[in-house]
Amino acid sequence: MDQKTEKSNLIEGATGEWEVVIGMEVHAQVTSNAKLFSGASTEFGGEPNSHVSLVDAAMPGMLPVINEGCIAKAIRTGLGLKAQINLSSVFDRKNYFYPDLPQGYQISQYKNPIVGEGEVIVDLLGGERVVVGIERLHLEQDAGKSLHDQHPQYSFVDLNRSGVALMEIVSKPDLRSSDQAKAYVSKLRTIMRYLGTCDGNMEQGSLRADINVSVRRPGDPFGTRCEIKNVNSIRFIGQAIEHEARRQIDILEEGGTIVQETRLFDAKTGETRSMRSKEEAHDYRYFPDPDLLPLELTQGFVDGLAQNLPELPDAKRARFIADYGLSPYDADVLIIERESADYFEAVAKDRDAKQAANWVINELFGRLNKEGRDIVDSPVTADQLGSILDLIKAGTISGKIAKDVFDIVWTEGGDPKAIVEGRGLTQVTDMGAIEKAVDEVIAANPDKAEQAKTKPALAGWFVGQVMKVTGGKASPQAVNTLLKQKLGIE
Amino acid sequence: MTKLTDLTIAEAREGLRAKSFSARELAEAHIDAIDRANDALNAYVLKTPERALEMADASTARLKKGEGGALEGIPLGIKDLFCTKDVRTTACSHILDGFTPTYESTVTANLWAEGAVMLGKLNNDEFAMGSSNETSHYGPVVNPWRRKDSSVKLVPGGSSGGSSAAVAARLCMGATATDTGGSIRQPAAVTGTVGIKPTYGRCSRWGIVAFASSLDQAGPIARSVRDAAILLKVMASSDPKDTTSVDMKVPDYEAAVDRGVKGLTIGIPKEYRVPGMAPEIEKLWQQGVEWLKAAGANVKEVSLAHTKYALPSYYIVAPAEASSNLARYDGVRYGLREKGADVISMYENTRAAGFGAEVKRRILIGTYVLSAGYYDAYYLKAQKVRTLIKQDFDQAFETVDAILTPTTPGPAFALGEKSGDPVEMYLNDIFTVTVNMAGLPGMSIPAGLSSEGTPLGLQLIGCAFDEETLFRAGRVIEEAAGPVFKPQDWWSKR
Questions:
Q1: Is residue A170 within 8 Å of residue A27, measured between CB atoms?
Q2: Which of A187, A249, A414, B295 sits a CA distance of 20 to 30 A from A333?
Q3: Residue B375 half-sphere exposure toward CB, CA atoms < 13 A
Q4: Is the ipTM of this complex over 0.90?
């Protein structure tokens, strides 16, 4: 067991405990209107072969031209991963035949990637923290797509994705559980969304992971690994690792050995199955692409990009904890999306930050999740939520009424203050009126009033009754104080 | 009056402007010559007479208005390696059967923009792999030159054999060609024509079917140094679509032609004096030295120490790149497709049927040298040799302005004479490949006749982007060698 492993991450086998070791290669599509080496559109969901240039289709005599915007995004991502930016990098050809690979090679970076070593801090919501080493980030072209279900005899090829820019982010084997792996990919996605370098949309294939999994007895050297290719959701990443680790443990416990191979995850069964063995692995015959000169960057170009980085998730998290006094959990939840963090900060400005965080996380996120909506199209704006909190603070409405007002704003829109006034939701603070209501309720329930003297918990029941009588508008504090007095509860 | 087909480009340019003849007449004269010659020479794989006449008429219209570009109305042949919009382009390979590009290569687009007229597509070795034009899917080209008192068919050199033969036989006024290891200069040498491979990066490679990307370079073959200068000026350009093309102004090469060599220093590389060099080649080389000296140049010996490693290294680098460049010819999207039970057998059947023996040989060599475990020993080593070759030249050019060598080890050989032995064939490029490995400009100028009465050429090698010095020195050699480079017409049908 090394420092990365907490006892709780170990997997119980029939013959004792096992540790799973995970490294990941995440393929993130660069947010860009044009492809890595051609001007064709990268828009998702076009008619098959509608976004294909002569270069993407590998017509004779066509040459790649580097998209500078994609280079800048790769560097931004590298900076976000606190990684070494290599001022000199090389594009290589990875040679293999496949119908959806028109050139017969993929342009990638092999020995000299644009980004070197870095790290990602991953905070799990349970409080566990892992620092994951980044081995490298390199740029490469995506392939097209083979369609095998369109014709009984033929496969069809759609080249819309052919040539789209991908960043392959390779981690060190620093992950020790499926939860860590899931959190790592989530964190990468958060960082790239902050940077605007990858939209992280897994349904559209903007983010996919190859997962290297091995198991060992705690303290032993690394075991033989298997690579699970192309897993395209965070949930599936968890399932694939769980299944693969269990599969390997079962083999080892039965006295078998793990064969190094490439495996596929089947989302239907939740299992992994063999795709090809090490012996069947391609010899990719990498060599520098002679159509592209080595990529030489100036330090000034990199510095310019570094100066324009936004505040990154780790810094934001630390600031939320330090400046707003939030719990690490609340900070973690709020920073996942840059837009959520911005929303929170707009609500928290000049207000009680903890209260703002509670409202954003519980009321707003709860409602958004329930309705499957995104923060950017929340029906309640930060200003509207802010003025609801202001009304609570001013004592104009109670917390309970505030929730009603939130619901009204959500469904109907409008200015919370006007809604409260217009609908008579203003909290009753007139002590005479409240006292009258308290007296009425006590008079109507003499038995319970008697019991309350010995069972103070019954006070809650009385509060509810008074609120009912006052239509929920009575100030809860006032009701409480009066009830305690009149019922003789200390 | 001189036959229209015998005019140089410079002469035709004057005649057209003076309206001594029309662009249509000039085109028709060439179309007629091609029609009568092609059965015997096989220089053209595709004739485009309608297009030629249409372009010629457009030239006439522009000339009438006093407009017109640098090549207005000049009929040219285009090597089949250049993609031409709506005109079949196959690189003379079966695998590109029927392929008709929807786009025009940058080099040919530059020519048409200056008013040149396309006569058709010229034969070449399949994918430019060969030194005799015998590997073409459309059959070999026959050299218009014959040995004295012989009717043995000779090769026109390669890979630009259609270009060299067509220019020598007056089937076009000039031709585009490409040179990866000598494919412009060697055919020019054995057909008595002028060929220049400019510096790597001078001409855009966009739209030229790739053989070996780091070595391929386009250039012209013409009948005079001046014509070559006129053509190269138009062909060359910096092209944002080819990031290996250089962002530099293209000089007025024609202006350099008559500047002479007075005060220039010409280097003679001692390593090119290979053992067993034919005495007539040795003599020709010495003659070239004397001519340049007589014109006022200084001559000194230089050393290009790594010359002997150039050819073996070339035959690692070029096939390696070719093996990858030719992977796209897989039967999936265009060209030939041979059916198969599954995709792998479709690939295998298509590539087995589509590629000729020499192309297959080079794909196999290239695949081998890039394979895991062999990469360092072959490809990486060859690239290191390449660096050393470049350094040799850099050193030499510290003290000389250009280098003079023979272009080829001998004159044109007979069809079939060397096609059985690939290594013997590869040795044809022994004096030319170093220039490609170093990315430098090289030019072949007709300089004399062999004992068999066939042409021999001398090669001038220049500093990077200094083609002008080559035109200056080339013109001196051309002038000294005299106007003897016209083959006897035996090929035209009456």
A1: no
A2: A414
A3: 11
A4: yes
| Domain residue ranges in chain B | 1-494
Residue with tokens 């409260």: A420
- In this prediction, what percent of chain B has a pLDDT beyond 90? 95
Residues of B in contact with A90 (CB under 8 A): none
Question: Looking at domain A431-487, does it have CATH number 1.10.10.410?
Answer: yes
Closest CA to A105 of A113, A97, A115: A97
A383 part of contact set with chain B, CB < 8 Å? no
At A79, list the tokens: 């900076």
Residue count of chain A, please give it. Answer: 490
Are A58 and B328 inside 8 Å of each other by CB? yes
Query: Of all residues in chain B, what percent are helix, strand and coil, respectively (each to 5)?
Result: 40, 15, 45
Amino acid letter, B411: P
Tokens of B17: 């402007």
- In 3-state terms, what secondary structure has residue B34? helix
Question: Which fold does the domain B1-494 belong to in CATH?
Answer: Amidase signature (AS) enzymes (3.90.1300)
List phi, psi (to 5°) of A169. Answer: -105, 115
Give all strands (DSSP E) within B148-276, no chain letters. Answer: 174-179, 194-197, 217-222, 265-269
Q: Which residues of B are catalytic?
A: 79, 159, 183
pLDDT tens string B337-394: 999 999 999 999 999 999 999 999 999 999 999 999 999 999 999 999 999 999 999 9
The model scores a pTM over 0.95:
no
User: Could you say which of B212, B214, B242 has the minimum Cβ distance to residue A63?
Assistant: B242
Query: Which amino acid, one-letter code, is at B263?
Result: G
Around B318, how many Cα atoms within 13 Å sit in the side-chain half-sphere?
A: 28
Q: Which of B211, B325, B363, B369 to mutate to test the interface with A (most CBs of A within 10 A)?
A: B325
Q: Given an 8 Å threshold on Cβ–Cβ distance, is A60 in contact with B347?
A: no
What whole-number distance in Å separates Cα of residue B152 and Cα of residue B148? 10
* Phi (first) and psi of residue B234, to 5 degrees: -80, -40
| CB-CB neighbors (< 8 A) of B241 in chain A | 63, 65
Q: How far apart are CA B63 and CA B27, in angstroms?
A: 15
Amino acid at B280: E
Distance CA A222, CA A215 (A): 7
Encode pLDDT of B281-300 as tens digits.
Answer: 999 999 999 999 999 999 99
Q: How many CB atoms lie within 10 A of CB A255?
A: 6
In this structure, which amino acid lies at residue A31?
A: T
The pLDDT assigned to A3 comes to 56
Q: Under an 8 A CB cutoff, do B332 and A62 touch? A: no
φ and ψ at residue B414, rounded to 5 degrees: -80, 150
Among B120, B145, B130, residue whose Cα is nearest residue B48? B120
The predicted pLDDT at position A441 comes to 85
* Cross-chain Cβ contact A63/B205 below 8 Å: yes
Contact A61 B208 (CB under 8 A): yes
